[in-house]
Amino acid sequence: MSSVVLKLGSRLFGFEGPCVEQFLTSYEGSVPFIMTEGDAFLRVVCGGMASSGYIPEDDEVLYDFMLEEIGSQCLFFRLGDEYCFRMLSPNGDGTLIEMRYRRGTDIVEASCCDNPSALRFALWFAVSMLSAPVHQTFVHSSVIVYRGRAVLFLGESGTGKSTHTSLWLDNIEDSRLLNDDSPILAIEDGVPMVYGSPWSGKRPVYVPRAFPLAAAVRLSQAPVNAIRELQFPENFAALQPSLPPALMQDSHFTDSLVDILSSTLASVPLFHLNCLPDASAAKMSCDAVFHHVSSNTPAR
Q1: Exposure check for the chain: N or C terminus, fewer CB within 10 A?
Q2: pLDDT tens across 69-101, in order?
Q3: Is the model's pTM score more than 0.90?
């Protein structure tokens, strides 16, 4: 079967099925990541299954949340060694898309979906499930590249991640944005690498490049600017909430995600920045991150 192949992080992903192929070849975010050669061993196949209609028991549900963008309830549940993701129609009259992933396999099967917003998120979730076992993951963050290295800015929605990275762009010469919502963090030969991705929030920044991670900075709004480096276990607790929360509910995924966290924090510092939305906050975080970082690290 033909497929659209995307390079996401350090891996190739194949996407099969008319609805997903049409979406990926027309969506501006995915086009820069399309590969014209190479074999994809991680696959998402749409259109080959229908929603089961099974209503999970409470103890089978791993995560239940609302996708605010379209007002849809999403369920992530486990049945034995199979995981199921289901997105319900906003009016409650059916299922927009359902996906299944069996532990130990390299494929996610999905029903067909003609809602672009639902399909976009579902593909993000499918890639998340396939990525964790191969030691890469999305990180909810806004990412600046400076001096050939990436800096992850972390925080809950509304904390000011995009505002802070905008302050870097305006005040830190030669800084640039890699991604504004869901970059990919991968561990390669023990080195944390940050990749752009087709999912970038409100700022459409779709850059198919990778940079070694210099540091991560967790942001909090405050009346004064102050920064400090966190040590274990604070640094672990500061980074962990930015990984896909649904996957953190099951050991099949958490074992790999914890390995990624541990490898990352063993290599780079994590800071906590109390900040105002001003230029001095950007300069403070820049000075802290790059105080000991070489400016000669090449990008990949």
Answers
A1: N
A2: 889 999 999 999 999 999 998 887 789 999 999
A3: yes
